[in-house]
Amino acid sequence: MRSPRTMISVGAAIVSLALVLAGCSSGDDSGAGSETGTLKLWHYESANGAMGKAWDKAIEVFKTEHPGVTVQFERKAFEQIQQNASMILASDQAPDLMEYNKGNATAGLLSSKGLLTDLSDEAASRGWDKALSPSLQTTARYDEKGVMGSGNWYGIPNYGEYVMVYYNKALFKQYGVAVPKTLDEMTAAMDTFVAKKVTPLGMAGAEYPAGQLYYELALSKADRSFVDNYQLYKGSVDFKADPLKYGADTFRDWVQKGYISKQSASLKAEDMGTAFIAGKTPMIVSGSWWYGRFASEIKKFDWGTFLFPGNKLNAGSSGNLWVVPEQSKNKKLAYDFIDITMRPEIQTIMANNGGVPVKADLAQVTDPKNKELIANFDAITKSDGLAFYPDWPVPGYYDVLVAGGQSLINGSKNPDQVLADLGKAYDQGVQEIKNG
User: Fold this and answer.
1) 152 phi/psi in degrees, rounded to 5
2) pLDDT by residue (tens digit) across 324-346?
3) Confidence (pTM)
C-alpha cells in the first residue's frame, strides 16, 4: 500500500503504443553507449516529488550514456497500475521497466505468475545486493509462491519509506498544542482541537490512509512476532483479539470523538494531501512519499513531522520497486537505468528533495529537515521497526481493507464486523497461497 498511494491524478486510459526499435534489437549484447532502440519506462511519482526529480535526472544521465536510445517515459497513476498490472504485463504492451508496489499481494503475486524477470544475477553482478540492507531486501525477494523475504530478486528499491505524522506547526501554536510523545498525549492534543471545533486528523477513506492509521494503532500494541505472523505467515493471526481488535476499535472511537471527519469516507489520498497543503488540517498520518511534495508546495506555514507517538513498530519498508517485466524487449537497458538510480549522485538529489535514499552522500544533504527524515528512517531500520503495510499479506487485500476503513468511518459496520471481513479475506488468501 503506498503505497501504496498516488500523489498525481492521471485519468488517461492505458493505450496501445507501438515500440519502434531502430537498428539492432535490444542492445543486450552491446556495451553502454552503443545501444540503439527504445527504453519504455513507467512510474507514478509526481514531477515535483523527491523520486520524480531524482529519476528525471537519471533519465538525463541515461540519455547521455546511451545516445542511440530513445527514452519513452510515461507517468501513470498508482491506482491505474495497481488495478491493471497483471493484464498489462501479460500483454505485448508491457513496458521495459516499471515502478511497482512491493509485497506479497503485488510484486509477489506477479513474480509467482512468471510476469517479472528474475534479477538475482544482476543484483549480484551490479552490487545491488550489497547496497541494500537485509531489512530493505525483504521486499525485493520472493519465493516460488510469491511470499516476500526469501528466494530470487524480482525488484530493486532505491529508496525507503515509512509512515509518520505530519503536523501544521502554525495550527499547533495557535491552539496551544505541543507535539505528543505518547498515544495518550496524542489523544489529548486532538481533544484540544475538537474543543475548538477543529477536526484534528485529516483522513481519506476511499484509499490507503484509513488502513494505514488502523495498522499504526494496531502496531502500538504489537510486537515483531505479530508482524512475522501477519506478513510472513509464521503463525496464526486472530482478528478477534488485540492488536488488530485494538486498531479497529480505536479507529472507530476516534471517528466518534470527532478526531476524524465522517465525510472523509469518500475522500482520496490526494484530497487529504491537498487539504494539508492548504493549511486546513492540523495533522495527517501518512508516508514519507508526501515529504518532497509538501516541501515544494507548502509556502504559507511551517510544518514538521514526528513518528507515531509511542510506537516501536511503524508501517514502512523499502520503497516501491523497479521491476522488469518478463515481456520486456530491452532488459539490459532497463538494468542500466536501475543502476543509474542507485548512484550517489541520483540518491543525493532524492535526499535533498525530501526523499529517503538507500545510498546518499549525507554530507551533501543540506536541509536539516531532510536529514531528520533520513535519520528517523535509519533509526527505525536499525531497531528492526519496519512492519510493512496492512494490505500486503494476500492478493486483493487492498480493496478489502479500503472497504473496511470506509465502514469504520461512515458507521455502516461496527469494528467486529469489519474485522470479521478482514479475517475472512486474509485466511482465504493465505490458504490459497499455501496451497499454491
Assistant:
1) -85, 160
2) 999 999 999 999 999 999 999 99
3) 0.78
